[in-house]
Amino acid sequence: MVVHLGDLENFRVKGVYSEALVRSLNGYGHDPAAPRTLQNPWTREHAQSWADSQNRHREPLFIEGHPYAHPRISVPNPPPAEIQLDGETLHLARYGTRGAHYSRTPPPAEWIPEP
């Protein structure tokens, strides 16, 4: 089964004991004489660093009036109500499955009736 990396969660470091998984990770460099030996294993620290970075889920950032996500910026999940970008304040306009959409105009003030 092929699953998009963004749909996975709770990454953690564990040992690899499956010959099929070792063969898959080794790719063309797999040695049949050593079926359970990884050719280029990561250190535990490197693997833990990668897992931690995947567990910090980030959402793409869209700015109203621009058709594409900002190429260098992403926001945490859940996104903040306001962010500073290039010296201007952007306000969260909406948030959904396709990312956080920010606007340059602040949200309307909530009207509270007087008692």
Characterise the protein shown here.
There is one protein chain. The protein is an alpha+beta fold and 115 residues long. It has 2 domains: 5-55, no CATH class; 58-103, no CATH class. It is 17% helix and 23% strand. It has helices spanning 19-26, 44-55; strands at residues 58-63, 74-76, 82-85, 88-96, 99-103. Strands 2-1-5-4-3 form a 5-stranded mixed beta sheet, with no helix packed on it. Strand 4 and strand 5 form a beta hairpin. It is elongated. The N and C termini lie far apart (60 Å).
Please tally the helical runs, counting DSSP H or I stretches of 4 or more residues: 2
Strand residues, percent? 15-25%
User: Could you tell me the radius of gyration in angstroms?
Assistant: 22 Å
Number of strands: 5
Mean pLDDT equals 85
Structural class: alpha+beta
Portion of residues within helices? 10-25%
Spatially, the strands of the biggest sheet line up as: 2-1-5-4-3
Order of helices and strands: HHEEEEE
Number of domains: 2
Shape: elongated
Main beta-sheet annotation: 5 strands, mixed
| Regions with little confidence, pLDDT below 50 for 5+ residues | none
Measured between the Cα atoms of the first and last residue, the distance is: 60 Å
